[in-house]
Write the structure tokens for this entry.
Amino acid sequence: MAPVAPLASLPAAAAAPVIAPAPGLLDRAQRFIEDNQKVILIGAGVAAAAGAGYYLYSRSGSAGPGPSTGAAAGGAAPATGSSKNKKKKKSKKNDKFLKGEGAEGPLLEEIKPKATEGAEDYLEGVPDAAGLASMPDVARNSLGATLKDRGNKLYAKKEFKKAVECYTKAIEVSVKKDAVFYSNRAACYTNYAPPEYELCVKDCDEALKLDRTYVKALKRRATALERLDRDEEAVRDFTACTIIERFQDEQAAAAVERCLKKLATRRAKDLLTSRETKLPSPTFISSYLAAFRPHSKPELPENPTQGDQTLMLAFDALEAADYVHTVSFANEAIEQGISWKVGQAEAYNLRGTFKFLIGDSLGAKADLEKSLELVPNFVQSWVKIASVHMELGDAVSAFGDFETAIRHNPDDADIYYHRGQVFFIMGEHDKAIADYQKSIELDDTFIFTHVQAAVAQYKMGEVAKSMAAFRRILKQFPDRGEPSNYYGEILLDQQKFQESVERFERSIELDKSRKPRNVLPYVNKALALFQWKQDIGAAESLCKEALAIDPDCDVAVATLAQLSLQQGKIEAAIQWFEKSGTLARTEGELVNAITYEHASRAQAAFLQNFPEYAERLGQIAQAA
């Protein structure tokens, strides 16, 4: 069984370049994500605007065998392309922003004076404590304003320490405290050599106690927090700036993205060094394995060793979809020693496969290379090591692997299917179709080659041909649930909601007795009902039903996170994103799960700190 994920959901890195989403949903979601990075700030608008848009941002398209679908399968990298172009054009402005500067220099309030006269006697007229106590409040406040103006002049002259003295005195003498005094003094601290970012943060704290929507103080504190590597707090403040400014401040939006990336990358590295290795979900594993035609287990030699017998147990466990025991028996067999070369090559192929599935690409590469040293014409190992090379970003080596496999066996249909997958994810759909057709000529009984060819046609805009191909596939494989699921996705993309739901239900019915169960039609049906009838309750129930069957189904978890955001249940969404992180297979997947978790945390903090903006945020989400 090789289930397919819902549109814009299953990671290609998981299983391979495979079925891609139809253009409409992907394009809408892509545009949404590129819209000032709102997708990482407006949780309530994500699902409405982009369906399963979470994974559009989360998983880049790497190649490897296995049917799946979604933006990643179409090769959609994290949608930051347009924002990166903007950053290049505005790099100088961004540098100023990091220093707390605007177009006219430092972001000081009322930095009117360009002239510098009158700053020499900057503390002139300031009485001692006794004199200050005898002054009326109006006079004290007036003196405070004068001292602030002197501080501004000194700041313009870059005499930051003298300016700090003026602002400090302004704070001391004034009866009515002014947030500007603290914010301007904070700006001075960022210009010290070396900068005093901790003092800047403290002064911004005081300014924001007096005026909590004071955007300049928020920006200044956020910049200082970022410099102190307190990225989670920086994200909080930059997020607040962005929302308060109605997403018009591109520099603040870029800062959110930048800090989230640093925060997530750092946390991901820490987590990967400490967490235990675990297998991905059965849905994920079965999807990958089903991308290869059936491969009979090797025959035992006449006098098998204990290691030989253990290897057979590994293959028995694999056939029973008992993946935990498959791995343990394969490791044990290698440790015990296998007596014949073919058996050794099979063992390393099997262990390398599961290393690839858990995200250990280098370990997988080493095992597959060992398999090929033992049996150089082991075509499946060549195909799998091509997948590893693609995940490692080495497309040249991957295509070399396919050519080597063809030299060993030009009539192996799997080679052309998997090379077609790589072409597919690279967007070269005509080459992909040519390879799929070659694979079908060699063996027309493999369902996924037919499906991939039909989807490639759809991606090329040949909708009628694709739909006709799917109808033929449904007739050719009437007892298989996968074609109905795939066809349902194509129908869903065309907003043929009732027909798509019927297809997903048919897929569920046909596969109900399979082990492991294909849970992805449940999630697809959930998305269809949400898009069709906005029936969030039914969508959540279907996703939870999928998780009851496969507790580690990352697609269901991601969809539940989005449905929670759609309802404004940010804390629930955070919990689902945390769960998504525990299911992440690679560092990239973990980084993206952490990114969304902390983007949601920042939004939750904003709504807690600025409840009066909740309605505005909802309005922006509805318009997105």
Summary: Residues 134-274 form a domain with the Serine Threonine Protein Phosphatase 5, Tetratricopeptide repeat fold (CATH 1.25.40.10). DSSP finds 33 helices and two strands in the chain. The longest strand covers residues 101-102. The two ends are 38 Å apart (CA to CA).
